[in-house]
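worker-03 picked up job from queue 'complexes'. Input manifest follows; two sequence lines, order preserved.
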Amino acid sequence: MTDAPETPARSWLTRLAIYGPLLLFAVFVVFVGSQLGRETRVTLTSKLIGQPMPAVNLPGLGDAPGLTSADFKTGKPVLVNVFASWCVPCRVEAPQLAQLTAMGVTVNGIAVRDAPDDVAAFLKTNGNPFARVGLDKTGQTQIALGSSGVPETFVVDGAGIIRYQHIGEIRPEHIELLMAKLAEAGR
Amino acid sequence: MIVELGHAALWLAAAFALLQALAPWLRAPVGDAERWTGLAVPAALAQALLVSLAFGSLVWAFATSDFSVKLVATNSHTMKPMLYKLSGVWGNHEGSMLLWILVMALAGAAVALADSPLGDRFRALVLSMQGLIALGFYAFLLAASNPFERLGVAPTQGNGLNPLLQDPGLAFHPPMLYAGYVGLSVAFAFAVAALLERRVGPAWAAAVRPWVLAAWAALGCGITLGSWWAYYELGWGGYWFWDPVENASLMPWLAATALLHSVAVLAKRDALRNWTILLAVVGFSLSMIGTFVVRSGLLTSVHAFAVDPARGAFLLVLLALYIGGALLLYALRASTVAVGEGFAPVSREGALVANNLLLAAGLGVVFVGSGYPLLVDVLGVGPISVGPPYFNATFGPLMIPLVLLMAVGPFLTWGAARTDKLARKLAVPALLAVGLALYAFAVWDVRAAFSLIGFALSAWLGVATLAILWGRLPWRTPRATWGMALAHLGVAITLFGITASGALTRELLVNLRLGESAEVAGYTMKLVDVAPVAGANWTALEATLDVSRGGQPLTVLHPQARLYTSPMMDTTEAAIHTRINGDLYAVLGKPDGSGRWQLHVWWKPFVVWIWAGGLIMALGGALSMTARASARRGAAQPVGALVAA
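worker-03 finished. Artifact:
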């Protein structure tokens, strides 16, 4: 490389070309540095946690009573299980729901986009842990609950406030957690 | 115990990195004052060996599921297949930083072992810069994110790895990408050393070229793998999302592409000195910024591992020191670098300058698009998202003149080029370009102007590139020419794939009962069965789709809706039938409650050409690299002559 002697008469454009990258980078560092502490976590839980249950008025199976908003104002925390007869993981969680019922928990079911006969057959095959079952034929109640799939299970306290959302099937290891959430909601 | 040995090896490696950084600056008290400079080479080799040991011990911990190591416990699981236990090593923050250091040390060892046409002192300086950069990352690993940290009480089972990441394409995507990122550190170190030694010139360009090509090829491979993974794993057939993290890998690639062309100009014509140095600095700077952006948690995406702000601050300080330092050195020394040769506008170098300007503009557009949402969010205007429409509208038009030029450039000679024969040489490509656009318009019914231009350009570039090789004897064609032709052909192929899959995709969204059929683009799908299946760490519903065309059975597709158990996560496994003229891409969705299953099927014409082109580009780079290496060995230039240049 040949070293040119220092030429004092450099245009501002040349200067910009030479110092520009450094300046740009300095701006970048300052900007990023000021942003480091910012919270960027995104929570994926239902927006309804801490909110009252949406209005529920669902027909039941055959002659059985359906599920209404009154069922969530009993003063006792309950579980709401969103399920469907066509949902395979819902079969997987049936023993856990039965176990929760045996432990004295009230479980209400919402059958989403389902035919009454199919639901009856499903409950006959897999056992019926539900105190009340409501048929949500259009899926509107599921949407109002902020639930996007089946199965999902909500903990609702005695005043009808949603306290907790469990996404996916209940596995044996989740029972303890759900019991704790119920106890918390009962306080 | 092995883990502790790995930890110790990492500390020792850091010590050698320090020695490597200091070697050219040390003065021996007795004898030849410069003789300690020679320590850089053995230090680089020792560092590489020790980091390999450290990395190996972490691999061992993952392979044996040693859950007393915190990193293993939080990221692995005994049920995971062995390949993913191993890829789990870099599927997390600490491990990926260790991989970064490993690749960096291996690149250093390669510099130490390769010929050094610029002399031993220059090599020691390059190694010194590499040692200095590595040292910062050692400090970061050892102080802020130790991968070898033990847990007081070892859990009996680990947390597992994000199921989306449990995939062969992704197991190799980060190492390739890192090889590219870190490979650019060699070019960076060469640039800084050249500024320090005031040796920017053709000899320097010839020496740095194989390193740039190697990094460019690896980066291209890594990006291609990542894009292919996104295509088949994310379940809706997209292959590029202009996600900030993807852009973070695209920007260094664009800079490296510009760099390898400007290096050619510098080597042949001694022009573009400052610009080439700046590109070499910017290329690796963008790699570091890319890694930083991914790791700092500044951006949330598939790629972001949870990281606390303290780590982000540490990385930012490192970046400020390295990049700021290099840019400052550039600013101080650039004003003393002689301008170099001028050149005729219509010439090979003129075309390459235009190429550089267009690539730099493309880089700027991507940079602005990636940074803008962050800026707007901070200014409090509310979160916005800059998506594909922005990039298609800005990046796309810049690529049109670039591809036009790419076909012409290779036909121009260095110096003032004769243009009288140019028209005849380019007549056939031009005709075929118009022909393909007309064919797409008439037969494929394409009406979008942008797509028609895409078809025309891909034919234009592809045919013109083949014309370079036309009439040459393959074995008498220089390997560098082969490399260039392959790389350009790869661009044409990728462009064709992007255009065709974008313009001609057919989509079908249906609810089918078992036994029912639906049709897309002439292919008939019959839903035969949906049944549960299970893997080592997942259960799934798997559909059986019989595919036929014109009554002839063609293939059977098995799309799955998977549920991973550790951690719990739903994923879709698309079933893909790849043909040279397109992919059938089927995704099994939710059942609708009345015995019908939702199926989403796409016919994506020529989509596989996108990645084939990417790999051909990388292959071209690799070929060009070996050509340069052998030419250099053959030439055996005396060191003194180079210094005098």
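worker-03 released lock.
The first strand of chain B starts at residue 506 and ends at 512.
Chain B is about 60% helix and 10% strand.
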